[in-house]
Automatic annotation (TrEMBL):
This is Glycosyltransferase. The keyword Glycoprotein does not apply. One of its GO terms (molecular function) is glycosyltransferase activity. Gene3D superfamilies: Glycogen Phosphorylase B. Residues 263-389 form the Spore protein YkvP/CgeB glycosyl transferase-like domain. The lineage of its organism: Bacteria, Bacillati, Bacillota, Clostridia, Lachnospirales. The keyword Transferase applies. InterPro entries: YkvP/CgeB_Glyco_trans-like. It comes from Candidatus Acetatifactor stercoripullorum.
Length: 503
């Protein structure tokens, strides 16, 4: 493992084929880091040995001190573990399956997760470094884009209500529900009904599926959870990635169709199958970040419906909308209530009735709506920007690496003391020469600067070696261990002081 003697300076930011967010390296560059960017053809969800070797080569060739990615990538974790450098992963998924693999257990990993409950769950698995860190925006970039929009923006809005995302129309019901027996299907529907369009602090999707339902799903998929995600229970896996997706699909279709009966609703998505939506919903293709900022700003209401598997955290979309100056109407999330002032910087709903009331009210109260959007934007740009967040990230990482290095030095010092005591116990004429050779080795210089007992032995050994060469009587002849050496050295210093004082 590389020794960390200074602050981290050289960083390798690694993209994957699915994730290529470049705001992080840009901001790190402005903070004075030497940032290298690499795309090694990685996929977020699987380990790739060839990619691992390429990353290790880049780390060695560029003398990289730390690797960084958006979300946790198992191949990067393996490469950093082998290269002996820290790996920083800022996670925006909850839960991210890969965090429940053996790759996540490496001590070099620093996991920053946006959901407090996910942090708690990950700590319970045994991950050493896992820290809560809300997601963020590139404040400078957002200001530049939105200021440009403001100058070009025509008066008025393009849409009354805008929702951006996906329907999670993956055929879960056809693939899995139809294969279950009637009892299990009924239990799944009950679980969905329990959480359907309900968000509050005391309601969770986790724990709603029976063991029988979980067992049935596990059998259908050949026990893949146990094989691929050993630190994740089957119940947690299927509630997060099966139940929550069916729930999200039903909620989003229901809300979009119902609101479209009274209002102009625009849905931006990359989904190919939107046939369950009413013809009244305007479906448009997904857009680039810069164009989306324009959409957020020119929508009267930007709607958020968080996946129920995100227990407390704030999705990236919410911050993006608010940073662009868009009015955000979101379902309740515990951390939204902690980060923002409801009714002043953001508006939250807990159920379908509140959602409908908020839409009706804020579409007809433009001044109040725009004031909330302005205050929300100010809060995000001031407190939840990449500059502030990344400063906190690397303050933590640097401190932990210093602590690790201190611990490593302490262990090395103990090993060195054992070697020194063995040499001191030897009574042959060469022991001082061997001690000098050992303690003047450059690799121990940091240890000797920190520990005075070992530094004292080195001084004693050098003095004794010179005495032996000159044929004089060795005043340290009766020293058999480090403790005796310290005592003898202190006695000699005291004697010299008395002589100097004429005592």
């Amino acid at each position: 493992m590389k020794q960390v003697t200074d602050e981290i300076v050289r960083i390798l930011y690694i993209q994957t084929n699915e994730i290529s967010l470049l705001d992080i390296p840009r901001v790190l560059d402005t903070q004075g880091y030497e940032v290298y960017q690499g795309n090694f053809g990685l996929h977020a969800e699987k380990y790739e040995a060839a990619g691992c070797r390429r990353i290790i080569s880049a780390i060695e060739d560029l003398d990289i001190q730390c690797a960084v990615s958006y979300d946790f990538i198992v191949t990067i974790a393996q490469a950093c573990f082998e290269a002996g450098i820290p790996y920083v992963a800022w996670v925006y998924d909850a839960p991210q399956k890969e965090l429940y693999t053996h790759f996540a257990m490496y001590p070099c990993n620093y996991i920053f997760a946006f959901d407090k409950m996910q942090v708690r769950r990950l700590k319970e698995t045994g991950i050493k470094h896992v820290v809560h860190m809300p997601l963020a925006v590139d404040g400078e970039k957002v200001k530049m884009v939105t200021d440009t929009i403001g100058k070009k923006m025509k008066s008025g809005y393009q849409s009354q209500i805008t929702f951006i995302g996906q329907l999670y129309n993956k055929g879960y019901e056809d693939t899995y529900l139809k294969q279950m027996d009637e009892h299990c299907r009924h239990q799944v529907h009950q679980a969905i009904d329990t959480c359907f369009l309900k968000w509050n602090k005391n309601l969770s999707v986790y724990g709603l599926m029976s063991e029988k339902c979980v067992e049935a799903l596990g059998e259908m998929e050949g026990r893949k959870v146990q094989r691929y995600y050993p630190y994740m229970s089957e119940q947690f896996f299927y509630e997060a990635l099966f139940l929550c997706r069916i729930l999200a699909n039903r909620e989003r279709i229901h809300v979009l169709n119902k609101l479209a009966e009274q209002y102009e609703v625009t849905f931006y998505t990359n989904d190919e199958n939107t046939k369950q939506l009413s013809d009244k919903v305007k479906v448009k293709p997904g857009m680039s970040y810069d164009v989306l900022s324009h959409v957020y700003r020119r929508s009267k209401i930007n709607l958020n419906m968080t996946l129920h598997c995100i227990e407390t955290g704030v999705p990236q979309r919410v911050l993006d909308v608010m940073a662009a100056g868009g009015f955000m109407l979101s379902n309740y999330q515990e951390e939204l209530e902690e980060m923002f002032v409801p009714g002043e910087e953001i508006v939250l709903y807990h159920n379908e009735k509140e959602l409908e009331e908020c839409v009706a009210y804020y579409l007809t109260h433009e001044e109040e709506r725009e004031q909330i959007a302005r205050k929300g934007r100010e809060k995000v740009l001031q407190k939840y920007n990449f500059h502030e967040a990344l400063m906190k990230v690397f303050q933590y990482v640097n401190q932990e690496e210093r602590n690790r290095q201190e611990s490593y030095i302490d262990i090395q010092a103990e090993e060195l003391r054992k070697q020194v005591n063995l040499l001191l116990a030897q009574k042959d004429e060469q022991r001082y020469q061997r001690l000098c050779a050992l303690l003047t080795d450059e690799k121990y210089e940091t240890i000797l600067r920190k520990f005075t007992d070992l530094h004292t032995v080195r001084l004693m050994a050098e003095f004794s070696r010179n005495e032996a060469v000159g044929g004089r009587i060795c005043i340290f002849e009766d020293v058999d261990n480090i403790q005796q050496a310290e005592h003898k050295y202190a006695s000699l210093q005291h004697a010299l002081w008395r002589i100097e004082q004429g005592l």
